[in-house]
Amino acid sequence: MKVESWIFLGGVFFFTPVAIVYGYMTNWSEWVGFLALLMLVGLSAMVGWYLLFTAKRVGPRPEDRVDGEIHENAGDIGMFSPWSWWPLVLAGSAAISFLGIAVGWWVFFIGAGLAVVGLVGWVYEYSRGDHAH
Fold it and tell me: Which pTM value belongs to this model?
């Protein structure tokens, strides 16, 4: 994971000068692109830091080692629930919230309320047992 983390952390050193050059080229009059590039710097830093922190905690994976074998990564990776409807509820509420930004704030608050319901339902989906929808 260290290679992935350094790739993302390298994005900080690449996108910071790009943002400054972009701001200079537009005479600091176009703020949307400049701020978007600065947010890209922050995103690269967050993902790179997370991957670096996880690599230190987990240790080298089989695909990181030279002597790693394919069978070392065999087996279950995690638990996924393919029958869950909560991601669909959360996506729909996000769509309603974004529509509310364009149409009116009262629609945004409806979408935000549905998002809270969808997020709580998704987080606590397995607290009542399997298939308890």
Answer: 0.59
